[in-house]
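Protein in question filed below.

…
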Amino acid sequence: MPGRYKTLLYLFLLVTIFPILQFFLFRYCIYDLMDLFGGSDVVYYNWRVVPILVSAPFLIYLECLFISCFFTENKKANQKLLKYMLHMSIIYGVLFFSSLLACPLINIGFAFSSYQSCPVGGAFSGVYYVKDKSKCFEITGVKPWGEGNRHKIDNP
């Protein structure tokens, strides 16, 4: 019977921990990528979205590994999960660094598309891309470049 209670406890923890993880990942990342690939009129792109989504399976693997550590009698990780740690780390490292290299390519792809970037403040914030330049002020509150008063320089 104690093994059955332990299994129920594992399931209870998985049911409570994974929705919290999924909430943050889906709320901030999935919607941005869905707009990006869906071709909506307004797309918010932040370069951090792709590496976060690539790291999600590895984080789930680590969480399962840590859960197995806390609930074993000798407080060591499950050997069946631990034997794949090296393989998962190598795969995650390759995928993570390749996603970091792919993030600037997405920005370059926007330069050749029908989208136009809206001016935003901050080097590490995301960028709004719109199909209609007049929506930029509504979204960001910042006037696009070249929309201010132009002063002519008179040469005597």
In short: The first strand starts at residue 42 and ends at 45. Residues 149-156 have pLDDT under 50 and may be disordered. The longest helix spans residues 2-38.
